[in-house]
Design goal:
alpha/beta, ornithine cyclodeaminase, domain 1, 2 domains, binds nicotinamide-adenine-dinucleotide
Length: 270
């Protein structure tokens, strides 16, 4: 059994078994982990995954309403000795109905040596950071020379995808963004233009964005019935598509004729 090297440091601060940390979103944000660090940590996790040094069963979920899901995602990394589970929910109508985010959740971390819980923490920030980190690491590996990036959806994920794309794609010059809510696209551009050294352009249509960008991503909504907004005939050879809203946004014909179709795990566990 691998005992993590920092276990003693934790044991000095917490009475393991009778105390645990509760970290709010603010507490998590106040750690000031940079996006570079998140990219580095995500890369390390992906390398462990690539070497099959992990245990991560396929997600299980419950679905109280149509188009709503809760997912439980336990994982164990034997290398660094990390074990925990994310419990995340997605309510696509939350912003409109309640003024709440679509995606909220918790993460539980345990002490791998004894199993006792160490921390219960907000997972919304972590999800907002980790998801685009995976997208852009994939984009950088699959399409290293990309100069253009197209982003559908300008919410929490869309904003972070653009920030991370600017970090991970060294040749990036122009980002095209598109959202059915024009105010969301305008807000993204107003916030990120002064911050990033790339051109950010509001797309004239989903078709125009699709035809303009070498790498495309989407973070809109996950629905039982795909929207298929991006038509197959708009997509041409040489483009890379890294969606984070599953297959909602894309014409299924595109995935059927893709030269390469990559998935995280072809089966439930290594
Ligand atoms: N794959 C993952 O691990 C992962 C992680 C987090 C979130 N997600 C998914 O990413 C999606 C976005 O999450 P978020 O937190 O950014 O949500 P959000 O509500 O902050 O943003 C979604 C944006 O998409 C826009 N949109 C909706 N329908 C659209 C359409 N047809 N065309 C263009 N824009 C459209 C909305 O106006 C909104 O601005 C959700 O579906 C969520 O489940 C996936």
């Amino acid at each position: 059994m691998t005992i993590p090297t920092d276990r003693q440091r934790l044991a000095d601060r917490l009475t393991l078994g009778s105390e645990l940390l509760h970290l709010s979103r603010r507490d998590v944000e106040d750690l000031h982990l940079t996006r570079d660090t998140v990219l580095e940590l995500t890369l390390q996790a992906l390398v462990e995954h690539g070497h099959r040094r992990y245990e991560m069963p396929a997600k299980i979920g419950v679905h109280p309403y149509d188009n709503v899901f809760y997912h439980a995602m336990p994982a164990y990394l034997p290398g660094p000795g990390i074990v925990g589970a994310k419990w995340i929910e997605c309510y696509p109508d939350n912003p409109r109905r309640f003024g709440l985010p679509q995606t909220t959740g918790l993460l539980v971390l345990n002490d791998v040596a004894s199993g006792v819980p160490l921390a219960v923490m907000d997972a919304a920030w972590l999800t907002a950071m980790r998801t685009p980190a995976v997208t852009v690491l994939a984009a950088a590996a699959l399409h290293p020379g990309a100069t253009t990036f197209g982003m559908f959806g300008c919410g929490v994920q869309g904003r972070e995808h653009v920030r991370y794309a600017a970090l991970a794609l060294p040749g990036l010059e122009t980002v095209y963004v598109d959202d059915t809510d024009v105010a969301a696209a305008d807000a993204l551009i107003a916030q990120l233009r002064p911050e990033l050294g790339v051109r950010i352009v509001k797309g004239e249509s989903a078709e125009a964005v699709t035809k303009s960008a070498e790498v495309l991503s989407s973070a809109t909504v996950i629905l039982r019935e795909p929207l298929a907004v991006v038509k197959d005939e708009w997509v041409t050879a040489g483009q890379t598509i890294v969606p984070c809203d599953l297959n909602t946004f894309w014409d299924l014909r595109t995935s059927h004729r893709a030269d390469k179709y990559l998935v995280d795990s072809p089966s439930n566990s290594p």
